[in-house]
Structures are given as structure tokens and as C-alpha cells.
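DUF3349 domain-containing protein
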Amino acid sequence: MSVAEPERRPGVISRVVSWLRAGYPGGVPTGDYVALLGVLRRRLSEAEIQAIAEELAAQRDLGLTSERVRELIREHSLLDPHEEDVARVSEVLASTGYPVEDEDEDEDEAEGEPDEAGRGLSPDP
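Structure:
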């Protein structure tokens, strides 16, 4: 059973999946997992990250269960990304339109209206 898309931010999961597929058409390289999780955590909840990972795994027919997706996220979450990896992943995501600024940066620079948590990922009207 997959994690349902959070109701208060409908459309966020599909938008982020689209950005990731545009930035990584061949799939996210294993070496980018830790940095990608770090960048996504700036704006997304754990439930949203899990839903995105499950969606990407299902689209690629990787045969991963929801439990295995959670395990992989936990495993990679415990590691600290290298700054150069975060910069590379941020550049890839920014090229697709994903707002990569830190939450404490000026929210006016983020694409989209900031949501209640100030994450700047509200869906298009």
C-alpha cells in the first residue's frame, strides 16, 4: 500500500515527480540519492518523499514494495551528503524548475506560492 498524497498540498507529488523525471530521464544515479534526499527535505515532508519514491519506483517497474522504499529512504537519510553532490543535484533540479532555495532564503524567490509551511511548492492554480 502506498502513501496517499497529502490533501493539504494536492498536486505536489506529481509536480515533483515530473521535475525529477525531467532532470533524471534515465533515473536518479545511486550516487545522488543522499544529496537528492537532502535537497527534497528542504521543502517536503517524509510522507511526500516516500510517495514520490514509490511513484518513481512504480513507473520504472522496479518491483519495490512500500516497505523496501521506506527502508531505502531511512538508509540514505542517515548519511550526510557532500556539498558538491548537493550543488550538482540542486543544479539538475533547478534546470527543471524545482525551487531549490533553502526555506530560510527569501520566499519571494521560490517558484509558486509558499504553502502554510513556507515550502513554496503549492500547485499551479
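The two ends are 29 Å apart (CA to CA).
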